Amino acid sequence: MITTAKRLDTVEEYYFSSKLREVRQLMSEGKPIINMGIGSPDLSPSKEVIEAVAAAILDENGHGYQSYQGLPELRKGMADFYQNQFGVALNPNNEILPLMGSKEGIMHISLAFLNEGDHVLIPNPGYPTYTSVTNLVGAVPVYYDLKEENKWEPDFEALEKLDLSKVKIMWLGYPHMPTGARGSLALFEKLVAFAKKHNILLINDNPYSFVLNDNPMSLLQVEGAKEVALELNSLSKTFNMAGWRVGMVLGNPEIIDAVLKVKSNMDSGMFYGIQKGAIAALNCDKSWFEDQNKIYRRRRELTEKLAEKLGCEVYKEGVGLFVWAKLPAGIESSEKFIDEILYEKHIFITPGTIFGSNGEGYIRFSLCVKEEKVQEAIDRF
């Protein structure tokens, strides 16, 4: 019997990996499942992106190993995007590192900076991968509360009362997943000051800025942020390229170089054609975002009706790709609540508990569902 590594004792299979198996099984049995659980865009990239990839496939020089740092024109495209959208100036040569999706960046950053026993500040609720990666590298998750009464923002008085002596990294993500809280530049300024005071590497996970959000922001807009902060971003949600796996990490050259040391030992570069498609995506004009958001706005309106039909109270201030809703009073378990809907009405909704204990009493709906399907879900009630 070959035993697994002890690190696997610290994690479970990712919730959606196991739950979607159950959903697929129900579908194979003929159940008409409407999947409102996962945030995988069902819309297509722009025709310019598809054309760029198609042309690149015919390039005889496009099939070999690529640079670990990506094509220079991809890095320039990312730098131009940040300049145009956020007013943030970045050197494409040493302050930007393309990634195969931002999720791998969470692992690369953790491997680059965390030793066994280091502490990591993780939002509750928040993206579950922050916890699993922290555990896999032998560090210690330390959760900080986000609550609706505080607009899903950190309580800095509570943060200062924590033992911060071993904290090396602090994860945050605004617009926030799963709640959709926007955050603000004032909040970012407080977070940068907090990180400087306690010598903490601050990382903002920022893939939702352009979905139903009239005020996109970057942590790197804060003066002096590069001294202590990184930002992760992704083309997955913004440009409907989730399966392409294109992301980026941006910030201080010395910190980026440390991440590159890890990354260069874990892959052999991103496929040339995908990089060319990403360059085309980053050059999209504002009409792209406007057209996408018209679709998502209609979907959100319908999804809010569905949530309200379930007796839920919708978090109306939310932006991004999800609708966050509070369950009716008296419901003791969000997981039991969504399972009843899955088995009785064949609609899959995400329970808030997978994002942390502060997610109990809430559920999350994805907007990656066509309008007619959302209407069908409403009609089932």
UniProtKB/TrEMBL annotation:
Domain Aminotransferase class I/classII large: 32-381
Domain of life, per lineage: Bacteria
Enzyme Commission numbers on file: 2.6.1.-
Required cofactor names: pyridoxal 5'-phosphate
EC class of the enzyme, as a word: transferase
Any one GO molecular-function label of the UniProt entry: pyridoxal phosphate binding
SUPFAM superfamilies reported for this sequence: PLP-dependent transferases
Pfam families listed in its UniProt record: Aminotran_1_2
InterPro entries in alphabetical order: Aminotransferase_I/II_large (IPR004839), LL-DAP_aminotransferase (IPR050881), NHTrfase_class1_PyrdxlP-BS (IPR004838), PyrdxlP-dep_Trfase (IPR015424), PyrdxlP-dep_Trfase_major (IPR015421), PyrdxlP-dep_Trfase_small (IPR015422)
Alphabetical keyword list: Aminotransferase, Transferase
Similarity field: Belongs to the class-I pyridoxal-phosphate-dependent aminotransferase family.
UniProt-recorded name of the protein: Aminotransferase
Lineage: Bacteria, Pseudomonadati, Bacteroidota, Flavobacteriia, Flavobacteriales
